[in-house]
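Aim 2 progress update. The chain analyzed this quarter is reproduced below.
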Amino acid sequence: MSPQPATQDDLDGDVYVFPRHLARSTTVGDAALDPLRDLGWDLHHDDLGNAYLTAPDGRVRLGYLPEGEDDGLWRINAYRDAFGPPVWGVCFNADAPTEFVTAFTTALATAYRDGPDRYLARPVVGSLERDPFLAVDPLIARGWQFDRPSPDTFAITSPDGLATLEYAVGPLDAKSELDSRSARWHLWSGTNVDRPFWYATASTDTPAALLRAVTESVADPAPLLRWRQATHSYVKSRAQLTPVLPPSLPSPTPLDVQRALAARRPTAVPAASVPRWSTTSRPALPGPRR
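Predicted structure tokens:
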């Protein structure tokens, strides 16, 4: 990627990381929490420092769990009945790029404003708006390739082979989908599924529009901004890093050019005094000849 000049609003980092699926978490979750906090969702913390956001109707809940029982840093669940079991669940682990989580919570905020018919919209194969494979389209458009790693799994892999979206076929255990990586959708980066750089999962009934928001972010060709010294925030051995260029200066105006030239023009030196002959001048007498 060619270096891009930075702007004053774009300086939370000194390198661009490409491709973006080789970035990792920024470890600051505010950007992903803000879309839901802006809707007035209730925020509270437990004694360990975990944060919880709850929708006003109690039917969508987000946990930001740095002190959770596993590496599932972000857990988002939706409920048809606030006192019943989850209808769908999504998890991003502690290393997942924060921008991908933000894409999800931003889409969730939009769906929540539109009502339960949106944020509880069960995927329907063949539907124009709810087909689950709408989530795959952004990846296909960026050259990701289909694969069949096992009889019960379809996969689509990035051109560099370092990111994969898997779709499990057949019946799945509802509880396992919410509590483990054995979910319908499994998005991960790395060379070994058992030791990924980062991962995210989504259960069977997660709305297709929310899944698509994540894959659109993953497929975006724009690099992600990180600090070079924060090597935990990108895959150091694989990612391409491009330094951030300093902000470009504005082009000078004609008046600026005139002033600059005037400042560099040397001050005029007065001419030296030169004696001049006049009609009243007395010529000097010649000296004696030798």
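The helical segments are 30-37, 98-114, 116-119, 137-141, 174-179, 208-219, 254-264. The mean pLDDT is 89. These observations will guide the mutagenesis experiments scheduled for the next reporting period.
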